[in-house]
Design goal:
It is globular, with a radius of gyration of 16 Å. Helices cover 36% and strands 21% of the residues. β2 and β3 form a beta hairpin. With 160 residues, it is of the alpha+beta class. The chain has a single domain, classed as Aspartate Aminotransferase, domain 1 (Alpha-Beta Complex), CATH 3.90.1150.200. The strands form 2 sheets. It has a 5-stranded antiparallel β-sheet. This is DUF1801 domain-containing protein.
Length: 160
């Protein structure tokens, strides 16, 4: 078997095979990305956690970091030229400062591409995260009979 190339989905899947928690897998992804992309992903992660202390980190789709609160808030994908934050309900969110700069044509998602050397308006991103949380909470409340997973890793559930 060949060794996974650092920073790839295959490498992240390999970390998942070890039984590592989602947070540990995201830490490993950041460490493997030993360039501006790792630093950027780590910075965005800190902003997300500060905006929503109750956020749940998961890893899906062969190693993509995902942040959830009553559903997916956003993902943190890394590409050669950008770190992309895709907001699951981005089209429904107000973006008064214009952070969304990618995936603008769809009816559901919106994304923020951060390129090397760029900075993100932290206050605006925190507001966007909090708006995404509010949208998910409202959608969950409007969907009777759905069970809420407090942590996908632990498998505990609250009654509706």
């Amino acid at each position: 078997m060949t060794k996974p190339t650092p920073g790839t989905a295959r490498a992240a899947a390999s970390a998942a095979d070890t039984g590592a928690s989602a947070a540990q897998q995201i830490d490993a992804t950041i460490a493997r990305l030993d360039d501006w992309r790792g630093a950027t992903l780590a910075h965005l992660r800190r902003i997300i956690r500060a905006a929503d202390p109750e956020v749940v980190e998961t890893v899906k789709w062969r190693g993509v970091p995902v942040w959830e609160h009553d559903g997916i808030l956003c993902t943190g994908e890394t590409y050669k030229a950008a770190v992309k934050m895709t907001f699951a309900r981005g089209a429904a969110l107000e973006d008064p400062t214009g952070l969304f700069n990618a995936s603008l044509d769809g009816n559901v998602r919106r994304a923020i591409d951060v390129h090397e050397g760029e900075t993100v308006d932290e206050a605006a991103l925190k507001a966007l995260i909090r708006a995404a949380v509010a949208a998910n909470v409202a959608a969950r409340a409007a969907a009777p009979g759905k069970r809420r997973a407090t942590s996908p890793r632990r498998g505990t559930h609250d009654a509706p």
